[in-house]
Amino acid sequence: MIALIDYEVGNINSLAILLEDLNLQFCITRDEKIINNSTKIILPGVSNFSYCISNIMKFGLDKILKSEIIDKKKFILGICSGMQILCNSSEEGNVKGLGFISGDIKKFPDDYRLRVPHIGWNKVKSNNNPLFIDVDKEERFYFCHSYFFSPDNRSQKKMIISETRYGKSFCSSFNYKNIFGVQFHPEKSQNIGKKIIKNFANL
Known about the structure:
Helix content: 25-40%
Number of domains: 1
CATH class: Alpha Beta
Radius of gyration: 16 Å
Strand order of the largest sheet: 2-1-3-4-13-12-11-8-9
Order of helices and strands: EHEHEHHEHEEEEEEEEEH
Number of helices: 6
Distance between the termini: 13 Å
CATH architecture: 3-Layer(aba) Sandwich
Number of strands: 13
Strand content: 25-35%
CATH superfamily: Class I glutamine amidotransferase (GATase) domain
């Protein structure tokens, strides 16, 4: 059973519809016992970083998620802001994240020659990670963001499993051990987005 974390942000309903279409067992929850009994976790997010972290703390999910992900090594997929708050910190609000992933969230520069936020379909160049099984190496996914993940150092770049070019190349998904994150929105990416969620469910 997949625990779809409800911390009052994100496209919960869109993700629920996608999971239903795939006939996957899931529960929209922030209940500790239900999360403990889940097999995997999806952490959505469509909001600013500081608000997401504030709600995670308000509901006591930081300790629950640490226990499940860091201690028990349960698979998690963070989506958009849900991906970003897994990291150390963000320039959006200058606040600390959960720190499960070594790296920070950077803002596209103010003088960027392309429109920010980055909204719409864009090409995702992926590697052979299990999250991208049966997905074209240069498939298109839907994005909506103004910030992107930047790993701490060269060795941490190994966790990058796809990149996308928007003026410059940025990390559009990462994987470190049991932790996965995607900057794009599978729930808005039609059938190709379903493949990502199905692959995650099959891990």
